[in-house]
Specification:
The chain has 5 helices and 9 strands.
Length: 187
């Protein structure tokens, strides 16, 4: 990425990367991620559990050797969000957690660059047609970030509670947003 370095999107290694992810999710700014109170071991267990699914994947974004974000992808029809909108062929859902600013402080354009790397990965690397995001409707910063990135605002929906032995997710009011491949690449 011009002016920022080389970004690599790598499969998350639950054991090796749990410390990095735990450091990010325990911060107050990550409250909407829903993992603030978890220990590093619990974070590792969450991502080890995710590895069992063919429809949900986690990736660590690394820029010039430094972790800069977490990308989770999922097949909408295999997720609770698929109950809340008309899933189209080629859709992919994503959850994004950006690393906090480093020792040098915030860098203008940094968040946009990491999100651009994520969208390039899902559109080109995974050959998808449309991305759906579902941030908590109260997460104004995330919603504004997606809008600036070109996502079209969708409806507020209620994602149903999931209570299974391997995963628990409380009910969530989410603002859906969509980004089509054509909006990014003009194709």
């Amino acid at each position: 990425m011009d002016g920022f370095g080389t970004v690599r999107i790598l499969p998350l290694d639950a054991k090796a990367d749990a410390g990095v992810v735990h450091g990010w999710v325990r911060e107050p700014r990550a409250a909407f991620w829903g993992m603030n109170g978890l220990t590093e071991e619990q974070v590792r267990e969450v991502y080890e559990g995710l590895e069992a699914f063919d429809t949900h994947h986690a990736y660590l974004a690394v820029c010039d050797g430094e972790p800069v974000g977490l990308l989770q992808t999922y097949e909408p029809e295999a997720d609770r969000v698929g109950e809340c909108y008309d899933v189209e062929p080629g859709d992919i859902g994503v959850h994004v957690l950006l690393a906090p600013a480093g020792d040098g402080g915030a860098r203008p354009g940094w968040s946009s660059m990491v999100l651009a790397a994520f969208t390039s990965y899902v559109f080109v690397g995974l050959d998808r047609r449309r991305v759906v995001v579902d941030p908590d409707e109260r997460n104004e910063r995330a919603i504004a970030r997606f809008t600036r990135q070109g996502f079209e605002s969708g409806p507020v929906v209620v994602l149903p509670e999931i209570d299974l032995p391997e995963v628990y997710l409380p009910e969530k009011r989410a603002r859906l947003a969509f980004l089509r491949r054509e909006a990014v690449f003009g194709q």
